[in-house]
Amino acid sequence: MRTLLLDNSFYPVQIISWQKAILLLFTGRAEVVDHYEDDLNIQTVNANFPRPKILRLFNRHHTNQFVKFSRQNVFLRDNYTCQYCGERHSYQELTFDHVIPQCRGGKTSWTNIVTCCRLCNGQKGSKLPSEFKYKLKSEPRIPDWHPSMCLKLKQGDPEEWFNWFIRPEVDKLSA
Ligand SMILES: [Zn+2]
Does domain 71-131 bear CATH number 1.10.30.50? Predict the structure, then answer.
């Protein structure tokens, strides 16, 4: 049984186990929006309460930690566009590039990884941005959107959860 986690503006953030949901509740970081209506209540030493179906975080800042750093999310952030030549490509044709190359101390992180086409990646090699013919199209940063792409509904999840996913932002991301 799972719990849908929303941020403080009711935006879906993640689907978590009910055990994790309880932890968020007990540590005062979230409140219950809705709970499961069955008999499988949670028993503690001095309480008995229904399992949370939807939780809302009090703090918006919690959401960024859930933006998973992954190849796909980097491509989404950069709109599948090579950050050097500016060409848009399909997932298969893209790679990611360390802006400051690893051999020169660059980290594998949101702020040092950009979407890059194979051609540019081959040409850039271990050059610094200042040594490469193209300027970066945009400064790489931690995405400010919510990782709705990471939310995968499973069979058996409550049907009303789908209501939380019909958002223009989600449409834009999956385009
Ligand atoms: Zn390119």
Answer: yes
**CB-neighbour burial class of residue 112 (10 A; exposed 0-12, middle 13-18, buried 19+):** middle
Instruction: Report which residue type is found at 43.
Output: Q
* C-alpha 48 – ligand 1 centre gap (Å): 58
User: Quick check: pTM over 0.70?
Assistant: no
**What distance in angstroms lies between residue 89's CA and the mean position of ligand 1's atoms?**
9
Task: Break the chain into its structural domains and give their ranges.
Answer: 2-63+146-164, 71-131
Contacts of range 87-92, beta carbons closer than 8 Å, 24 or more positions apart? 87/117, 89/117
41 contacts: CB under 8 Å, gap ≥ 6: 48, 49, 50, 51
Consecutive H or E run containing 97: strand 94-98
Span 121-174, pLDDT tens digits: 999 999 999 999 999 999 998 876 655 545 666 777 787 776 665 443 433 344
Asked if 64 and 142 count as a contact pair (C-beta separation under 8 A), the reply is yes
Instruction: Return the bridge partners of 52, or none.
Output: 35
Kindly give the distance from the C-alpha atom of residue 104 to the centroid of ligand 1, in angstroms, as a whole number: 21
Using one digit for the tens of pLDDT, what is the confidence trace for 40-73? 777 777 777 788 999 999 876 544 455 778 888 8
SS3 for 3?
A: strand
